[in-house]
Amino acid sequence: MGKKIKLGILGGGNNSLIGVLHRVASSMFDKFELVGGVFNTDFNESIKFAEDIGINTGRVYKSLDEFIEKENNLPEEERVKVVSVLTPNFLHFPMAKQLLENGFHVICEKPLTTTLEEAKILKETSDKTGKVFAVTYTYTGYPMVRQMREMITSGKLGNIQKIDVQYYQGWINPIIHDKEQRNSIWRLDPEKSGISCCLGDIGTHAYDMIEYVTGMEVKKILADLNYLYKDNEMDIDGTVLLRMDNQVKGVLRASQIATGEENNFTVKIYGDKAGLKWEQENPNYLYLLEENKPLQVLKPGHAYNSEFSLSGTKLPPGHPEGIFDSMGNIYHGVAKAILGEDGFDGEYPTITDGLRGMNFIEKAVESHKKGNVWISIDN
């Protein structure tokens, strides 16, 4: 086996859930080696974290500037090649741009940036440098989501005629009703999170999923958002009507005040021949619905699945795979791109997907503020 791609991480230290997810995912397929980064704004905490996970503290830096300077002074075969940006939203743009301009490939958490204009600049920078840039819309890595995409592409559903995507959580419900709490978390601070909380955090996952599995682009949206309190500047719930190509219509529903819900992300696509339904909380089941036929349940690892689905299946049938595996498949796709290896279309979400996600967020907020009117999504 060849040498592993050296990986750096910005953020994701201490008890960060997203940090654990990325570290485990990067270790799958034996393509990456995590060698250092800036894990915390507090250098001492960053060092302690590196010691806890067994990283050489000599590759832990006080700032991004120091990281770039010292890594680029190392011999080519030793330096970090790709960096995962796992910081709060407002840091995505300046960090990713600086990394690209200094020769690093980038894996960035979503949303890509806090504004559409920043996303456009980042896309131009990425195109100019030619570096691989992935945006971690994690759920696209699930084998049965990839199976869904392949079945739709092959025409199994016929002409698409209805799209219904729901992403419901309840985590913010106990926070939003307390004035002190809702004014203290970064996700409800537009300076740190951008102009949207709910759509920016989970609605953008749903939006990307629609375009990913159908291969169609959303053309127009009409949004009705919920803020609950006048002193809260950020949406915490919303419904968005969609108009796609070929007169296809749909609805996207996202909420962080769906009391008792955990991570209820459900994708339903209906054609004139059949329908498909997938639920993130039960990701190993893809339901095929056809007129006058029994409900069919497709599961990962079986020969009836597509080659693309099987390429992301690591275990024999009956052994559940989950979100770590999904993110691992995305990292695997990034590794193939960096190494110039052949792969499948759609193995990792690109910066273009991130740009369209920011376009969706801004247009949805605009639609709501203008009185719930139809707004076009620019290409």
TrEMBL record:
Protein source organism: Zunongwangia endophytica
Domain of life: Bacteria
Protein name: Gfo/Idh/MocA family protein
Location of the GFO/IDH/MocA-like oxidoreductase domain: 145-276
Domain Gfo/Idh/MocA-like oxidoreductase N-terminal: 6-137
Pfam family, one: GFO_IDH_MocA_C3
Entries under InterPro entries matching the protein: Gfo/Idh/MocA-like_OxRdtase_N (IPR000683), Gfo/Idh/MocA_oxidoreduct (IPR051317), GFO_IDH_MocA-like_dom (IPR055170), NAD(P)-bd_dom_sf (IPR036291)
